[in-house]
Amino acid sequence: MNDFINTYGFLIISLVLQAILALSMYLPLMAGQLSLATPGFYAIGGYVAAILSVRTFLPASGTTFPEPLQSFVLWLGTVFPATPQGQAFPVSLLLVEMLIAGVLCGLLAIIVGLPALRLRGIYLALATIAFVEIVRVVSLNLPITGGSIGIFGIPQPYPTKFEFAWIAVPFLVIVALFVYRLERVRVGRALVSLREDELAAAAMGINPTYHKVLAFTLGAVIAGACGALSAHFINTWNARQGTFDASILILAYVIIGGSRTWLGPIVGAFLLTALPEVLRGAADVQGIPTFLAQFLKDGRLIIFGLLIAFSTLFFPQGLITPNLFKRRGGSEGER
Amino acid sequence: MLAQQLANGLAIGSVYAIFALGYTLIFSILGIINFAHGAIFTLGAYFTYTLMGLQFGFNGLLAQQKLPFGLPFWVALLVGAVIAGLFGVFLERIIFRPLRARGADPLLTLVASLGLAVAIVNIIQYLVGAETYSYPSGAALPGAPASVNFGTTEAPVIIRTAQLIIIAVAVLILIVLTFFINRTKTGRALRAVSEDATTSSLLGINTNQLIRLTFFLSGFVGGVAGTLVGLNVGITGPYLGISFGLKGLAVIVLGGLGSIPGAVVGGLLIGIVEALVPASLVSYRDALAFAILFIVLLVRPQGLLGRPLIQKV
To answer: Is B297 on the interface with A (CB under 8 A)?
Structure first.
């Protein structure tokens, strides 16, 4: 068991974190809004945690900021003291960082979302891709985010990676429960009605803008908090963490897992994150021809891409569909 | 100085323009954005390189391999672009047509094209590695000087021959394509399909065949654009098309989704604006296209030359 955890601990926590991100993209999609902004908020959340815990916000020795900012920065320095060598980063501070990251991303999401969510379909997707790219280029250039090198040596709250499960797993459970409940209360049903037919929903007295921005903001809060946790987990944070590639990947989790229920994105994230590792493992199986083993090792992203492309043909609804529950449970109500 | 930057902007802008044409052709017919277009663009550059009989590097399955023959640059460009076009048709056959037959959600088609892009980029990497390749200097016009000075010796406006070729080829493609779409019978049928596919099929237009043609044209111009960029800056690896793919999105939205003149205007505008970024802010240049994209979407979502979006009940 210990061997297993040593080998796959990192992967298991990655699965959980990716599942959280998938749910954060699922939320706007629930309201029919294809938003690819999740990696942007994830990156910002990670930078918040990295900046606060590595204390890159402190001015270089000798320079000072203009006054109100200077006292604020010094105060922030007392709230987030330097972690001495060999000591663990306090978990309470990590939770505070997640909270700050979530709130900041939520506020930013309202600012970005209010104008952007007037757009529909592919236009909204393009606007959110633009948002992700702008965040990436800006973080590549700011001194506080470490430029192209990024921020490294982010202090660790736990001695091993697997122990991040103490935070990541409850976080996923809370988010999943939240989305599960959301699908069954008034606000959630309003979101679904917007997905099915926005005009009809608006005619029934549902405020489209309010609900769309709400879903977008909730997704951003989750992505931001997840980024803050990931920054500690990965140990370094740079502009490669929130890119267009990540947008594609997370969208693939949701679409392949199933974009109609809360379970779909989680299953999709688990499957697709584990897949490259599974293929790598398959290459080590005794007795398969060398060229095949080589292909499984070096060409696993080819298989990955083809799987995404062809699963849209064979599982257009995703792997997990609401009907799955109906058949098994029998009495899900009139969903 | 200004003239120099305008010239640079014009060269890169014309590549953006013909690259974006590939997006726009498919969008105008199918209403989807084909993210595999960036990968086809990359493929085109590699096809030309292969057909010229040049050797691959040390990595990948095809390490140190080369064709037994070598075509001249222009023939290789043309054949490479045709193969890229046929590859586009192949993708249409295996993914996009089945999806269309099932009446799939545009979102699903988008994801499928993203998956294809990931697969193609990694197939390239698997075959020839991630090394940088470049066409031999003077491949396009043997004996021509590397650059031409259009200004005076005091105020030089130096344009590299590669840039001149890019502009010339881009203009040629635009003229031919515009003529084809506006003046020929097939072009008219193409416009009819983009207007309303169902009605035009009722009128006896073979919709499937035209969609195949669109994918061919899109792949063809994508392949040409890839080779031109390879000529200008070299083939910088399998990910060459990804950054262009994203910029291309900004271009087509700025010009108006599905509008061919829009793609041209958008491409030139973004190329020139990027070239005019002052040196001190040059590291922010890549964000500029996306900032423009974001603002255009908010202020004028139909783009500069697109038709206004009408919401049908």
So the answer is: yes
CA B171/CA B17 separation, integer angstroms: 10
Q: What is the distance between the alpha carbons of residues A63 and B206, in angstroms, rounded to a whole number? A: 71
Cβ contact B129:B56 at 8 Å:
yes
3-state secondary structure of A51: helix
Residue B127 forms contact with A (CB below 8 Å)? no
Within 8 A of B293 by CB-CB distance, chain A residues are 126-127, 130
Distance CA A131, CA A310 (A): 29
The answer to whether the CB of A209 falls within 8 A of the CB of A191 is no
**Whole-number CA gyration radius for chain B:** 20
What is the average pLDDT across A320-332?
Answer: 65
Identity of the residue numbered B17:
A
Inter-chain CB proximity B294 and A127 less than 8 Å? yes
Q: Which residues contact B211 (CB under 8 A, 6 or more apart)?
A: B29, B30, B92, B96, B97, B100, B193
Measured CA to CA, the distance from residue B25 to residue B178 in angstroms comes to 12
Q: Which residues of B touch A127 (CB under 8 A)?
A: 293-294, 297-298
- Tell me which DSSP letter residue A123 carries: H
Instruction: Name the residue among B102, B111, B313 with its Cβ closest to that of A252.
Output: B111
Q: In A, residues 79-108, which contact B (CB 8 Å cutoff)?
A: none
Question: What band does A62 get if pLDDT is binned at 50, 70 and 90?
Answer: low
pLDDT at B259: 82
Alpha helices (runs of H) in chain B, residue ranges in sequence order: 2-30, 37-51, 73-91, 97-101, 106-128, 161-183, 185-195, 197-202, 207-233, 240-255, 260-275, 285-299
Closest CA to B95 of A310, A257, A319: A310
- The residues, ordered by sequence, that sit 6+ positions from B26 with a Cβ below 8 Å of its Cβ are B32, B33, B34, B37, B214, B215, B218
Residues of chain A neighbouring B112 (CB-CB closer than 8 A): 308-309, 312-313
What is the sign, positive or negative, of the torsion defined by CA atoms of A175, A179, A185, A188?
positive
For A214-238, the pLDDT digits (tens) are: 999 999 999 999 999 999 999 999 8
Helical ranges in chain A per DSSP H: 2-30, 38-54, 67-79, 91-116, 121-141, 165-182, 186-196, 198-203, 208-234, 244-257, 263-283, 290-298, 300-314, 322-329
Radius of gyration of chain A (CA): 21
Residue B227 phi, psi (nearest 5): -65, -40
Q: Residue B44, class by beta-carbon neighbours within 10 Å (0-12 exposed, 13-18 middle, 19+ buried)?
A: buried
Give yes or no for a contact between B255 and B267, defined as CB atoms under 8 angstroms apart. Answer: yes
pLDDT tens, position by position, A258-289:
888 899 999 999 998 888 788 877 777 777 78
Q: Strand B147-149 vs strand B158-160: parallel, antiparallel, or unpaired?
A: antiparallel
pTM of the model: 0.87
